[in-house]
Request: fold
Amino acid sequence: MLVNLVYREQGLILGEGNPKNIRSLEDLARPGLTFVNRQRGSGTRILLDYRLAELGVDTDIIHGYDHEEYTHMAVAAAVKAGAADVGLGIRAAAQALGLKYIGIAQERYDLCIPAEYFDTPYIQRLLEVVSLYDLRDCGKVMWQS
Reply:
């Protein structure tokens, strides 16, 4: 069975009040902004690089593009501390630190569960515990052979 687990939203994490008036990914190339990135190979970094290429934004002109953090909370903490004006991460990290957030993409996560394991206490408990995500299809069977 293919069961939807969660959706999460990726977006721009901004300082309180958005003092630099950042509105979109294109703004990352503006002079005077400092960006904090996720590490190479992370899903967030792949999303960022893909979207910037689509927009024709050269990463070489983004101040802080090479400043890498390994978690969404570390990105949010860097913005909260004033070490960066903006970073890319999940909404939950921005909310946890009371930061402004502008969504740019939604991602869907599914679990592929062999039918014989679906009713086990472990799988059922997993489906109960999920939080801090968009749960609109959580537990819904998305495909069955």
